[in-house]
Amino acid sequence: MPIEINWQLLMPELIITLTLLIVLVFDLFDSISKAILGWMTIVGAGIALWVSIQMHQAGTVGTQFNDMFKVDNFSLFFNIIFLVSTILVALISMSYLSRDDRKQGPYYLLILLATLGMMLMAAGNELIIVFLGLELMSLSLYVLAGYFRDNPASSEAGMKYLLLGAFASAFFLYGIALIYGGAGTTNVPAIAEAITAPNKSPLLLAGMFLLIVGFGFKVAIVPFHQWAPDVYEGAPTTIAAFISAGPKAAGFAAFLRIFMEALPSLQVEWSSVVIVLAMLTMTVGNVIAIAQTSIKRMLAYSSIAHAGYVLIGLAAANNDGISSAMLYLLVYCVMNIGAFGAVILAKTEDGESLMISDYAGLGLRKPLLAMFMTIMLLSLAGFPPTAGFVGKFYVFKSAVQAGHIWLVIVGAINTAISAFYYLRVVVTMYMREPEEELSFTAYPSTLVVGLVLAAIGVLLIGILPSLMLTPAQNSVF
Amino acid sequence: MTIELIVVLLAAPLVGFLINGLLGKWLKGNEQLSGWIGSLAVLVSLVCSIIAFASLHGGAAPFDETLYEWITGESFAFNIGFRVDALTSMMLLVITGVGFLIHVYSIGYMHGDAGYTRYFAYLNLFVFAMLILVLGNNYLMMFVGWEGVGLCSYLLIGFWYERQTATDAGKKAFIVNRIGDFGFLLGMFTLFAAFGTLDFTSIFDAAEADNFQKVFGASTLVIATLLLFVGAIGKSAQIPLYVWLPDAMEGPTPVSALIHAATMVTAGVYMIARSAVLYNIAHTGEVVAWIGVLTAFFAATIALTQNDIKRILAYSTVSQLGYMFLGVGVGAYASGIFHLVTHAFFKGLMFLTAGSVMHAMANELDMRKMGGLKAKMPITHWTFLVGALAIAGFPFLSGFWSKDEILHSAWGSSPIIYVIGLVTAFLTAFYMFRLIFVTFYGESRVEPEVASHLHESPSVMWVPLAILAIPSALIGLLLGWGGHDSWLHHFTKSVFPEAHHDASGNMILFMVISSVVGLAGIAFAWSRYRDRTPSDEPTNALHKLLANKYYVDEVYNALIVQPIKNGSHYLLWRIVDNGIIDGIVNGVGAIIRFIGGTLRRFQTGIVQAYIVSMVLGIVLFLAYYLFFT
Amino acid sequence: MSLEYYLVLSALLFTTGVIGVLIRRNAIIIFMCIELMLNAANLAFVAISRSLGEATGQVFVFFVMTVAAAEVAIGLAIIVSVFKHRQTINVDEVNSLKG
Questions:
Q1: Among A6, A465, C82, A48, which Cα is nearest to B79's?
Q2: According to DSSP H, which parts of A100-224 are helical?
Q3: Smallest Cα–Cα separation from A209: which of B624, B480, B94?
Q4: What's the rounded Cα separation, in Å, for the pair B101 and B281?
Q5: Helix axes B398-413, B507-529, angle to 10 degrees
Q6: What is the C-alpha separation between A352 and A1, in angstroms, rounded?
């Protein structure tokens, strides 16, 4: 049986593959300035982003490889999230790598590989593809987390991520095996057909739950979250930004696809668990974040809490819930990378400023840096007119529609708690006097460009929500 | 008038902000360019404002269009939309007109400052926020602008952050304004609860038809308007929240002229004029008028004894803002806005001349160390004199017209208010000419090394002064000729509801009385200060009280700031504190932080501990699945 | 033999792996226990595939084995780099990141 391949459907993935091959080849030549590799990554991801947007607007739908790979507006919207994250991370990485004279080739190669893995996860219409995408992404991230081999913290982060991630992957794989046993297939639509009959075998339920464990680990849901703060703190800051953004979105992409499309008949069972997980995740993330003194760890716990807000959309389990979760993920990726970027910008002569107290007095002394940080933190806290507010608003709204009033109340209380620690940084910047004058290094222009793009994105979506809300609403499968 | 015009009007200062803010690094070498970009941006807005004004003046209908729905809920929508009517266009002309001149002036004034591009970035951002404030067609956008100008004000007051006093003043302004903003926010919530929308036209129509949810019974609108007024008290520096404005003079002088005299501080007056319908129905204008007239009097008395020229101008601003509130409070909305416009010109002018003096005197502000400056700085002297005559109500100059209209309307409302207002007019003339005589006349007390550099300011500074002097002198005549039948009243008739005050008494008589009072103030100042320096030490108790600004800062410090600072040391305070909401909030915060600190300990850093908690989670949920469902 | 026996065996293998991960301190042994969990899943795939009479599960196993090999390669490299810093691969002693 000859396989008809529709190359056009695979364009974004092919472009990324081509780009990573080019990066791989160019890295071999010592005569070339390695800085060009970052630009190649950006250009490649930019073209793939443009193609994805075009395909999304055209409403392209189709499956490939014997129904294993599905391109629709859902996967394309997630492609947009991944590629935007990749571009932003590449922008904030350039000066970060060159100032410490790091190897650049493998770095961008691994970032592109991870991006490809995420795209496979979003488009996976078959559990094998999802698993392979997940592993491709995860393996690249393990290496990236330990990328600074001479730095003990980075190595430790890599090892922790690897051990815990592999452990979670095993649960995920076992879950797939059980679902295969219960439904007799691993194809997403076929699973849905197979379990429409009143056949809720323990095999299926257990398998479904192990999938939650696997995804829960990747997107850092409590109680599977404990790797996140350690890894974010130890990993290079750019990689912490990367891990907190794209992979989280990818985890949710597969989560949404599998649970909404393959397991809708088990919705009663999974949505109750998702509600509990959402409450736990938001609360634990925010409460521990309050007690942090390091800004990277604070952002790590905050990103755990944000996974909880996305889960609210998933718990609503209606079209509005899915679209609001997708919008939230897009917004979250941009603002979180922006926040990490601002941390990188706050580089002093002696290294990065990682303590919150180091930010005292920056409001007037380093107005540009403080402005970026403030915009991102206000957005993370969900203040209007930033994108974070819009994201939270629609997620909460979908939960109200689904009747989960309590979930929304817990979410609102959590938003109030989170405002406390985000605003504490803002207040420190604008209202405190520094105890010692830190000498900050000059701003690298690529980093500023990345932050400007993130800030424009955050404000534009905040002021003109329909810009991204309408595409998100059109992307529900 | 089209939406494109308004978008250009708004976008120009934003673009200026972005260029100066982001490309500042590349503009550093060429500071003139940075200043001209900032000025050009405001000039574009000014041209757009003039076009909008001309089209309204030509009889075009007011522009009111909702661009799009920002956020939509089940039963409500928040909109982004603009409104340009007579009131808005007056404000636009003031903001962009005075704004443009001050930008140009700043090119010279800020010359050589390390933060040159940052300064113009902030100034452009301020203009943008102020334009949002007056252009919005709903309270939400007004609030966005309201917060935006507050932020810029904070950043500009603390612009010279190396000075401790500047950062302190910035923080003070910020914190005091939060109190006012909280009131504004509550007022907005009340309106939203009552009307289900924040759009001006919908709210005003519903209020007039008495068709809204009476969330607080019959006093719904009373509560809403008073809460909004709390916001105005904070932003426009009225009793008791005026304390931040005199300290705000720590910022660069052009900032004081633009933000803390001409535009931002008048936002409260604009807000009340905009909400005129609500204030008329709720009959809360009287409160506004009383606060206004008391502030006017109170601030004027403080200004009598100050020796710092910028501080005198600051208290004078507080006092004049009081007049504006008096005007809108007694229902003479057009007169209040009239005074806003004339004040923007003459007070802006006086701040800029003060800046010119500072520029020449190596940043000296104490007028006891000046004297006889007229000879060395003739342009500065003459322009200042124009401003001072205008504010003192010298016949046929700007202040004369606008202040007189307000006093005339006040008489119709309450003779007591009128008398206080009249006394204040006398005090105003007195303290302003005290300033003039001590600074520009008499013999020079300038220190020798400063005196050698004493010079008139460069043309980029004095040209704006000269240009500003013309409207400062004449705009009153232009807009106000004919009293309550003037051009301004006709122009704004469509915006404001019929005034409920009945103009009684002969207008001419009032004008004569005001003029006499103003001239008497000038004459009194002349008799006392034409060749005398103010004494260094207060001579009697009243003088001492005034010189120390009624000890209000000290009282606030003793009653509010210190207890909060030291309070935790005292058991009593803890008990009291715990009783109120603040204590509960702090208590909850502490508990959460404690829980967070405890939960942190589970993050041991040991891989297997994490695996244990994962496995425990899995086992618990699996058990729940297999046995309970 | 019916499918249940294979599934029980695979579950036992999987649990053995989990317990191994929980109680061993040596990073390499932990890693081997994770491999055991993956192989338990593989066993389940093959058994189910056989009982359903279709090939999906068996193909799946090939992919899993490839992934596992890649994981080992990367895992060992990372463990070596940790060993270089600390001269130990006892996971209890690698805990500088916490809180």
A1: A465
A2: 105-123, 127-145, 152-183, 188-194, 202-218
A3: B624
A4: 39
A5: 120
A6: 58
Contact list in C for residue A139 (CB cut-off 8 A) is 67, 70-71, 74
Q: How is B503-529 classified by DSSP, letter by letter? A: --S-HHHHHHHHHHHHHHHHHHHHHHH
Residue range A196-224: average pLDDT? Answer: 85
CA B381 from chain centre, in angstroms, equals 26
| The two structure tokens encoding residue B304 | 């009598």
Would you tell me the crossing angle of helices B581-600 and A405-431 to the nearest 10 degrees? 90
Determine the angle formed by the axes of helices A405-431 and A367-381, rounding to 10 degrees: 170
User: What is the three-class DSSP state of A196?
Assistant: coil
Asked if B192 has any chain A CB less than 8 Å from its own CB, the reply is no
Q: Report ipTM for this prediction.
A: 0.96
What are the structural domain ranges in chain A? Answer: 7-473
B572: its two tokens? 């009593």
Q: In the structure encoding, which two tokens stand for residue B492, read together?
A: 């704004």
Interface of A with B in 261-290 (CB under 8 A): 269, 273, 284, 287-290
Tokens linked to B284: 């809360």
Mean per-residue pLDDT, A187-195? 89
Is the pLDDT confidence value at A167 over 90? yes
Question: How much is the pTM?
Answer: 0.84
**Cross-chain Cβ contact C40/A174 below 8 Å:** yes
Cβ separation of A180 and C48 shorter than 8 Å? yes
H helices of B196-284, in order, are 200-208, 220-235, 244-247, 253-257, 267-274, 276-282
* DSSP code per residue over A12-57: HHHHHHHHHHHHHHHTT-TTS-THHHHHHHHHHHHHHHHHHHHHHH
Contacts of B118 in chain A (CB under 8 A): 367
Reference B103, options B44, B166, B159, B25; nearest CA is B44
Do A99 and A92 touch, CB atoms closer than 8 A?
A: no
Give the whole-angstrom CA distance, residue A375 versus residue A373. 6
Degrees (nearest 5) of the Cα angle A307, A311, A316? 160
Best of B23, B28, B71 to disrupt the A interface (most A CBs within 10 Å) is: B71
Contact C82 A162 (CB under 8 A): no
Gyration radius (Cα) of chain B, Å:
27
Which residues in chain B are closer than 8 Å to C92, comparing Cβ atoms?
A: 606, 608
Q: What does the alpha-carbon distance between residue A278 and residue A280 come to, in Å, rounded to a whole number?
A: 6
Nearest to A476 by CA among A76, A100, A149, A74: A74
Instruction: Using an 8 Å CB-CB cutoff, list chain C residues near B600.
Output: 99
Whose CA is closest to B403, among B479, B323, B330?
B323
CB neighbours of residue B567 within 10 Å: 13
SS3 call for A450: helix
Tokens (6 digits) for C70: 């890649």
Q: Could you read off the pLDDT of A361-370 as tens digits, one per residue?
A: 888 788 888 9
What is the per-residue pLDDT across C9-64, written as a single tens digit (0 to 9) for each? Answer: 999 999 999 999 999 999 999 999 999 999 999 999 999 999 998 888 999 999 99
Mean pLDDT over all residues of chain B? 83
Contacts of B497 (CB under 8 A, 6+ apart): B276, B277, B280
Q: Give Cβ neighbours of residue A231 (< 8 Å, ≥ 6 apart).
A: A145, A157, A160, A161, A240, A243, A300, C97
Which chain A residue's Cα is nearest to C97? A230
Residue B299 identity (one-letter amino acid): A
